[in-house]
Amino acid sequence: MTAPTRGALVRAGFLDADRSGRCLEDLADWASDEVVALLAASPDPDQAVLGLVRLSEAADGEDREQLGALLADAGAGRRRLIQLLGSSSGLTDHLVRHPAHWREVADAQLRDAATVYEDVARDVGDATGTPAYDALRVAYRRQLVRIAAYDVTSDPIEALPIVGESLADLAGACLEAALGIARREVDGAERARLAVIGMGKCGGRELNYVSDVDVIFVAEPAEGDDDETGAREIAGKLAVATIQACSAHTAEGTLWEVDTALRPEGKQGPLVRTVAGHAAYYERWAKTWEFQALLKARHVAGDAEVGAAYLDAMLPMVWQASTRENFVQDVQAMRARVEQYVPASESERQLKLGPGGLRDVEFSVQLLQLVHGRSDEHLRNRATLVGIESLMRGGYVGRTDAHELDRCYRILRVLEHRIQLTRMRRTHLMPTDPEQLRPLGRALGITRDPAEGVVKLWRDTARDVRRLYERLFFRPLLSAVARLSDDDACLSLDSAQDRFAALGYADPKGAIGHIQALTGGVSRRAAIQRTLLPVMLHWFAQEADPDLGLLAFRRISDRLGGTHWYLKMLRDEGGAAQLMARVLASSRYAGQLIEGAPSSVAVFGSAGARIPLRRNQILDVLRAAIDRHDDPDNAVRAIRETRRTELIRVAVADIAGTLDLDTLEQALTDIAAATIQSALDVAIRQVERTTGGPLATRIAVIGMGRLGGRETGYSSDADVLFVHDPHEGAESGPAQTQATQVVNRLRDSLGASGPDPSLTVDADLRPEGKSGPIVRTLASYAAYYERWSAGWEAQALLRAAPIAGDVDLGERFVRLIDPLRYPEGGIDDAAVRQIRRLKARMEAERIPRGGDRRTHFKLGRGGMSDVEWTVQLAQLEHAHEIPALRHTGTYSLLAVMARHDLLTEDEAETLGATWSLATRMRNAGVLWRGRAMESLPSSLADVRGIASLLGWPLTRSYGLQEDYLRQTRLARAIIEHRFYESDLTEGRDAFPTPR
C-alpha cells in the first residue's frame, strides 16, 4: 500500500506526523488503510503506531505471523489491540516484553473471579523465591492487559463497575497466590490458618489500575493445635512473606504495595490477630473511622472459614457505629485528616481528595449507609455505586440526585483510571500538559478540542459533586417533612429523625417541627424556604449547636414573615445565608439580640454593613434618634435600640472573623461610651425641663477599668466615676442635687430591664465606695485624693479616661489624677507590699467557692488579673520617668515594658498571648452562652462552642483546655518572678532598673 502523506496524517489526528509516517513505512503491509484509521481513532495515535512497531519487532516466528493475521482481520481483536496501544504506554511495555500476551488482548473477554484465581495459581505453579515472584508478576499483567483491552473498547462510563470488580478479583487472586508462595517458604505453615481481608477499594470490588491494596490479616491455630501464640507467630511470618511476594521489586517489576495500616492500632499494632483479638479491640478501643473502614471489609484470600468468622464478628459492630457519641464529628474528622495530607500545590488538581473529588462522594455515601444501615439491611453494601442505588431505592436519596451522583462518580473514576492506565503509575492528579490532556479527552470520547473539553468536564463534575453533597444529606430530610415533588426521596419521619440525630441535632423531633412550620403551605415564603433549608440545615450541622441555629432561624423568619428583602437576601446575597447559619448556631448572645430586632439581619447582606461604627458615627445616629423623641422614655428606648443594633453589627463581624481583638474591644468601648453620652444628654434635658432652666453644673463621666482602658468585652459593666463642676455663680447645693439627679436618671435608664439589653453603669470605684456620694465636684475629688486616697485607688486610676460629658472638665480631672497614678519617684515599699497582699487576698477570696484557681479567666493563676496587675505595678513604679507607660490599656504596655527592659521580649510575648487568649475565651463564652462565663468550662458542649468561635475545628476542640492551661502556666511563672518573688532576685523593685 502507499503510505499516507504527512498532511493526511496530520488531518487524521497524528501530532508527530513525520515519526508516525516512518513507523507506518516500517510496518509495511500491516499498515492497511483500515489499520491506519484505527490508529488515528485511538486516544494517542502517535503512541499507538510506535507501540505497534515495537510489538512487531519483539514478536517472532508464529507469534509474528499470527499478529499479522490479526491486523489483517476486520474482527474486534484488531481494534482492541490498537486501542490499548494508544491508551497505555505502560502496558505496551509489557506486551513488548511478553509478545505472546497480545492474544489476551485480542480475546479480552472478562472472566469470573473463580477462573481468574485458577489462572493466576496455574501460572505461578509451585515455584518459590524470585522465580515465583516473577511468575506472579507476569501472571498478573497477563490478566491485566485483558481487563484493560475490554475497558478501552467499551463505553468507559458503563464498563466502570465491572472493570473495578475485575481488578479487585485479580488483586485477590494474586494475594491468594502470594499466600501460596509464603506457605511453601515458611516452616510450620500448616499450623496457622490465615485469612486475608480486603479493605478499601479492594474490599469494595472497585479497585483502580494502580493502587495500594489495603488488607487486614486474621489468623487462627490449625484445628487441634492449642498453641495459639506459636500459631500467631507463624501466621505473622506468613503475612510478611505474602506482602513480600507482592511488593518486592524483581526483574519483572512489582505488583503493588500491600497496605496494612487499617489494622487495629495501625502501623504500631501487631500485623496479625485472631478473630477474638480483633473483636476485643473494636469493642473497646476502636474509633468511629475504623468502623467506617470496616464497611468495605471482604474476605479475598486464605482460609475462608476464618474470614467468615471475622466478618461475622465485625460487621454487627459496623452497623451500630452511628449510635456512638460524636459520630458525625468523628467522620468529619476523618475527612479533614484525609484532606490534610494533600499538598497545597496539588489540592486544585486532586481527583480523589480535593473539593468535589471522589472522597466527597465516598464519605457521603458511607455516612448515609452507616446512619440508616443500622435498621435497613438493604443498605449494607460495599461498593459506592451499589450504595448509591440502594440509598435511592430505600428513599434516603432522591432519584434525580442519585442518578446525578452516580454519573459524577463514574466520570471521576474513569478519569482516574485513564490517567493511571497511561503509564501504569499511581496518581490521582489531573494533568496540566495539553499533550497529556488531549489523549485523556479522546479516551472519553471528546473529539472537539479534547484537552480543553476534558478539563471542563472535570471541573463541572467537581462542582456538581459539591452541590450534590449538600443535597444528599439534607434534601431528603426536607422532603420527608415537607413532602416535595415525586422525584424527591420518600424518607420516612423516623428515618429523618435518625439522620438528624446522626448529623448532630440533639432534638430531631424539634428540628422536624421547625421545618414543617417554615415550609408548610403554598406561599412564596414557603417555596423559598424549601429551596434554602437543605443547605441551611447543612450549615447549621457544621456548627457547635445546630438545634440552636434552626430554632433561632425559625423565630426570626416568623417575625419577618414574608418580608421580601429578607428572603431575597438569603437567596441571592452570596454568603449571607451561610454567615447567618454560623452566627445563629454558634452564639446565643447574637441570636437573642437579633431575635429582638429581626430587621438587623440586614447586617448579613454585605461586608460593609459589618464594619463597626466609630464613637462619633454612633453619636450622630443616636442624636438623630433622640431628636425624634420629646418624651425622655422614648428617647432612652431609641438609645438602647441603637446600642442593640451596634452590638449585633460587632458580634456578627466578630463571629465572621473580620475583627481582631483590639478592634473588637475598641468597637465595644465606642458603643458603651456613645450610649452613656447620649443617655447623659437625655438625663440633662429631662432635669432641665423639671427645674425650668439650664443645668447649674458641668458633668463629665470618667471611664474606669476595661471601659477606661478601651478594652471593653461583651460582658463588661461600665465602670465609671462621675465628676461635676458648678458654673460660676451657681450654688453648690442645688448644683450637687442636679448632678445627682442627672447621674441617677442616666444609670436607671440604661440599667433598667426591658426588651433591649441593659448596660450596668457601675460607680463603685468612687471615693469611699458605695458609702460615698455618687458624684463629686472636681474640688472634692482633689481634697479626697490629697488626704485620704489609698494605694488601690491610685492603681484603679491608672485606667481612668474621660468617655462622656464635658470635655474640658474631663481633661482637668485627668490632670488632677496624673500625679497620683504616676507618682514622682514611684511608690514606696509599703505600697508595693500592700498591692501584693491585696492581689493575693483577691486570689484567695474572690474566686467562687469550689472554683478552680487554674481556670478562672480573670482571677485564676496566670489569668487576666495577673497580667494587668503586673503591668499596673510597673506603671506605678516607672510611669513618671517613662512617659510611654502613661496609657490606660494593658496589652500595648507589654511591648513598652520590653523596650525598657522591665520584661524580656519573651516574657512580654508570653504575657500578651495569655492575656489575649483569656480575653478572647471570656468574650467567646458570652457569645456562646448568652451570658458571662468566667472560667474555662468543663462541659464538652461549652468547650466545643467556645473553640468554634475561636476558629478551632470542632474535631480538635478538646485541645482548647490543654492549650489554655499550658499558656497560663507559662504566664504564672513570669508573674511569680516579676510580681511576687522579685524580692528574692531583684531587690525591692518588682522590675530591674529601666532603660
Automatic annotation (TrEMBL):
UniProt protein name: Glutamate-ammonia-ligase adenylyltransferase
Enzyme Commission no: 2.7.7.42
Pfam families reported in the protein's UniProt record: GlnD_UR_UTase, GlnE
Keyword set, alphabetical order: ATP-binding, Ligase, Magnesium, Multifunctional enzyme, Nucleotide-binding, Nucleotidyltransferase, Transferase
GO MF term (any one): ligase activity
Lineage of the organism: Bacteria, Bacillati, Actinomycetota, Actinomycetes, Micrococcales
Domain Glutamate-ammonia ligase adenylyltransferase repeated: 80-311, 579-814
GO BP terms: regulation of glutamine family amino acid metabolic process
Family annotation (InterPro entries): GlnE, GlnE_rpt_dom, NT_sf, PII_UdlTrfase/GS_AdlTrfase
Domain PII-uridylyltransferase/Glutamine-synthetase adenylyltransferase positions: 333-473, 839-967
Organism: Allobranchiibius huperziae
